[in-house]
Amino acid sequence: MFKITALPTDEVRALQAGQPDAYGAAPERAVSSGAGNPCRHCLKNIPEGAEMLILAHRPFLEPHPYAETGPIFLCTTPCERYEGDALPEILTTAPDYLIKGYGPDDRIVYGTGAITPKDQIDAKVSDIFARPDVAYIHVRSARNNCYQARIDRV
């Protein structure tokens, strides 16, 4: 069993209030084109025409060689954090995703990374979590490598 973990609400509310991103810059404001602008808090696509934030995000507490930083989108207005047990909307819209496991030291566990079709995510996650050296999994865009969400064991 596993759960999809969205960005924490307190972190998102701070960014929505103008807190600097991972590079120390204020989040940029833009207008969503619809599909392809997934909010990493509600894990839904930001509707076409809605205002959104674009910012640099590093899903690790400390910088290190494996701590990838990249662009993400957030709703500009408060949205509800995803807490479901099914795949969220943002993991069903692209044909495939990059999935890779990380150890408790926040380093990539080599041999776990795979471009995975969306209808095989559950099976791939189960395969990766079968390894005792994997503490959690990141899901990223297979095309742009953008962070989507974290997957944790239940």
Strand order of the largest sheet: 1-8-7-5-6
Query: Counting H and I runs of at least 4 residues, what is the number of helices?
Result: 2
Strand content is: 25-35%
- What's the main sheet like? 5 strands, antiparallel
Topology, pairings included?
Elements: E1 2-5, H1 9-16, E2 28-31, E3 51-57, E4 70-75, E5 96-102, E6 114-117, H2 121-129, E7 136-141, E8 147-153
Antiparallel strand pairs: 1-8, 2-3, 3-4, 5-6, 5-7, 7-8
Structure description:
This protein has 154 residues and is mainly beta. It has two domains: 8-75, first zn-finger domain of poly(adp-ribose) polymerase-1 (2-Layer Sandwich); 89-153, no CATH class. Helices cover 11% and strands 29% of the residues. The protein has two helices and eight strands. It has helices at 9-16, 121-129; strands spanning 2-5, 28-31, 51-57, 70-75, 96-102, 114-117, 136-141, 147-153. The strands form two sheets. It has a five-stranded antiparallel sheet, with helices on one face. A three-stranded antiparallel sheet has the order 2-3-4, with no helix packed on it. A hairpin with a 5-residue loop joins strand 7 and strand 8. This is DUF1203 domain-containing protein. It holds the Pfam family DUF1203. InterPro entries: DUF1203 (IPR009593). It comes from Ruegeria marisrubri.
Sum this structure up briefly.
The chain has 154 residues and is mainly beta. It has 2 helices and 8 strands. It folds into 2 domains: 68 residues, first zn-finger domain of poly(adp-ribose) polymerase-1 (2-Layer Sandwich); 65 residues, no CATH class.
